[in-house]
Amino acid sequence: MRIGNHGLCRRLPDQKFRMAAASTNPLMSVSKMKAFIFLCIGLTAFLIAATATAFFAILALHHLHRPMASSIVPASAPAAWKGYTILINTWKRNDLLRESVLHYSRCDRVKSIRIVWSEPDPPSHSLRHALSEAVDLNSKVGGNVELVFDLNQEDSLNNRFKDIEDLKSDAVFSVDDDVIFPCESVHLAFTVWRSAPETMVGFVPRMHWLNSPLQKSNGDHYFYGKWWSVWWTGTYSMVLSKAAFLHKKYLHLYTNQMPQSIRTYVTQNRNCEDIAMAFLVANETGAPPIWVKGRIREIGSTGISSLGSHGGTRTRCINDFAAVYGHMPLVLTNVKAVDGRSSWLW
């Protein structure tokens, strides 16, 4: 017992020292840890601030020296390639026509605005004056944008693609009077078209789908795919002429060389002139169109596309036109053109 007690007593000072050290070191460790954490937080905040400053400085320089979309066209390009013609299809919606002309006359690189007029009565003097005044006030300095009404005796959707001999540009932007696209988006599409002028470049994609054997109850081989099918699959084979660039030569081919039976079909059914043009261009090129990302603003009331029979009518058009051509000229694609300078996510 004494030996045990003596050993215990002899170790007691050492234990006291260790206890004192143990009671002191945790406090020192906590203080050091706090100091280390605060140092890390401070360094992190400094790095974030420095990175943000550098980023915004680069962004400011980018916007300062960023060329406008219109300046992408080289100065050495032929005159017919430096600008484009706006071809507006309208029908008894003068208020929408005024708004459309007012908007597009502000866009750079516009050489001419042509209005496809198929109404029985000619445009009134007041309408002509109002549109001419809007073009003169809003067109760019030195732009000299011309405004022309192309009058037609017959009321036919084929009129929107009637051959125009005195066009000032090779590029034609076909657009309906009830849709508005920002000038920047139109310039982007024009730039894309210049890289592939033989094809159609537009904002409204659609698709033709192959029917399964169980779906061909009415004998149709294909069916018309609306926007939701393009959105779901990312695949399309047409861009609608309600908002699309095409070469002016296709107006000549549509009027003079496309099968007459298709033009007659369009007139009688009052539909599918855009599908007819898509077939024509695809048959000439063997290539798909190009879909360009753009913000669309509908300024008119819903048209024939909202009718319940619209999809069925378009399906019949696709199958009937394919029968006339003897094959399916439309080509599938998944390509989408986006302006990378203004896109955060790729």
Helix/strand layout:
Blueprint: H1 2-65, E1 84-89, H2 94-104, E2 110-117, H3 125-138, E3 146-151, E4 171-176, E5 179-180, H4 183-195, E6 201-202, E7 205-210, E8 222-225, H5 227-233, E9 238-239, E10 243-247, H6 249-256, H7 260-269, H8 273-285, E11 290-292, E12 297-298, H9 310-325, E13 336-337
Parallel strand pairs: 1-2, 1-4, 2-3, 6-11, 11-13
Antiparallel strand pairs: 4-10, 5-12, 6-10, 7-8, 7-9
Keywords: Disulfide bond, Membrane, Transferase, Transmembrane, Transmembrane helix
Protein name: Glycosyl transferase 64 domain-containing protein
Organism: Platanthera guangdongensis
Helicity range of the residues? 40-55%
End-to-end Cα distance, whole Å, is: 82 Å
Structural class of the helices, strands and pairings? alpha/beta
Could you give the order of the helices and strands? Answer: HEHEHEEEHEEEHEEHHHEEHE
Strand content: 15-25%
Radius of gyration: 33 Å
Unreliable stretches? 1-24, 54-73
Protein name: Glycosyl transferase 64 domain-containing protein
Organism: Platanthera guangdongensis
Family: Belongs to the glycosyltransferase 64 family.
Keywords: Disulfide bond, Membrane, Transferase, Transmembrane, Transmembrane helix
Task: Report on the architecture of this protein.
The protein is an alpha/beta fold. It has nine helices and 13 strands. An eight-stranded mixed sheet has the order 3-2-1-4-10-6-11-13, sandwiched between helices. A three-stranded antiparallel sheet has the order 8-7-9. Strands 5-12 form a two-stranded antiparallel sheet. Strand 2, helix 3 (125-138) and strand 3 form a beta-alpha-beta unit. The model is unreliable at 1-24 and 54-73 (pLDDT under 50).
